[in-house]
Task: inverse folding
């Protein structure tokens, strides 16, 4: 835990957890995931608020990789509902049987889509999105409770490297989600 002293008008106050530093790695995506994972683990294991954790995860992924859109859709009332995200305005609600996110939810499997225009039933929340990876997030009972959706403005931008790196991060969420 990092802290610092703030001094104003001869009063000293210790400040803890006001800001987190994110080390931005360089190199291959594999190297970036390797450096990012322990940082995300530290963030989520020291914070109990679920929304704060999801927000920090998407911010870190967006900052490190520069993805077009990164966000969570949470299972609520029989559909996927927009949660914390980084990027342009997004679709707010997605039926379980629609689009890439719905497919990842219903199959409970990660899906990589190299060209979203070629995916049957793709929901075009942003026309600039060209490729996508969506990962189911499961609770400790194995039920899908949300999906992590990552979009790129480049065709064929995701690979098994992203799948492995993001699945590891999603595993952290599963461990701490209450």
Result:
């Amino acid at each position: 835990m990092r802290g610092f002293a703030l001094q104003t008008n001869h009063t000293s106050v210790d400040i803890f957890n006001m800001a987190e530093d994110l080390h931005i790695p360089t190199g291959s995506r594999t190297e970036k995931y390797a450096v990012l994972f322990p940082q995300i683990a530290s963030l989520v294991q020291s914070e109990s608020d679920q929304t704060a954790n999801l927000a920090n995860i998407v911010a870190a992924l967006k900052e490190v990789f520069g993805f077009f859109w990164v966000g969570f859709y949470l299972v609520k009332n029989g559909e996927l509902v927009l949660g914390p995200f980084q990027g342009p305005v997004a679709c707010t609600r997605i039926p379980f049987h629609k689009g890439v996110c719905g497919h990842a939810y219903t199959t409970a499997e990660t899906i990589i889509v190299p060209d979203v225009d070629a995916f049957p039933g793709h929901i075009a929340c942003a026309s600039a999105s060209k490729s996508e990876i969506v990962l189911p997030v499961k609770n400790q009972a194995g039920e899908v409770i949300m999906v992590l959706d990552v979009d790129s403005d480049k065709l064929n931008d995701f690979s098994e490297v992203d799948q492995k790196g993001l699945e590891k991060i999603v595993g952290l969420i599963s461990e701490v989600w209450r």
